[in-house]
């Protein structure tokens, strides 16, 4: 492959293949370059270090959970909130069921880069905050601090999106438990009608 | 030590020492017997198998989290609920900070015996259910199903009691996040006054 057409996307795709094949402990930039048929200098032109490349791969993988979340249709905030939480749970569960080995690989990578995971959580909580704030504006939800409430919703649903709980996601009771937690959280945010 | 005075408690204490010293992968019943200066037959008289002994040690360790929970004073359900959740979080966090190695050992043991952990969760959810049901009786809380609500409260606070999250418990923001989740859950259960 000519260096001239080497794109960032091609490197990230090759890096994911290499990580899956050799595991996060053994995969190197030289392996990635070899898989692409280029020199490792060509890879370093796009990513200044092995750590930067790994973080970019991790970031891209985490971003994939967002795709489904960004398209939650407009509507009453309680409905949007549940749809958003459900889409996140579905996306994470699909990832682990589709490719458990790759999921395990990424769990190691995510554990390595605390700044990448912190930015990821910030972005997700930001999406929740937007839904909560819109609900407060429409008089559907009541909370003094939309950001803190959004973070509380995110933390209270950790069992349904944190990879540490992946083993529990095939439990037959998990869907009912997810709905019960959503019910409780939404009930805690809904502005109760006072005649 | 004479076999005649060998008690269940002595065996459990010795087994914990042995597990800590050799690790869960290597510890054997013979090691436990040697630590006590008795034959392994004497240990088997109390516990029919190595698995039974390990489960008993695990059960005892989990039970220690209950001690503080059983003494939550009577009072308004929202106050009791928060005190119970806070006592559980405090007990778990104390365990990991006091002796991280023993905590890691028990995390392995707990992962081995799904029936022991299921019984433990049932017992904890039962305590929550009692608080919720008492609150409904007193007109302080509103829920159609106290058991399901109790389970939802337990699941929604996983980040603050499940050992999978132990690494997050020294985060400076964790206490504020715990209180925010409690606020939200209690707000979801409180019967809202309607004039």
From TrEMBL, chains A, B:
PROSITE patterns: HTH_TETR_1, HTH_TETR_2. Keywords: DNA-binding, Transcription, Transcription regulation. GO terms for molecular function: DNA-binding transcription factor activity; transcription cis-regulatory region binding. Residues 28-47 bind DNA. The keyword Ion transport does not apply. It holds the Pfam family TetR_N. Residues 5-65 form the HTH tetR-type domain. It comes from the Bacteria. The keyword Transcription applies. This is AcrR family transcriptional regulator. It comes from Nonomuraea soli.
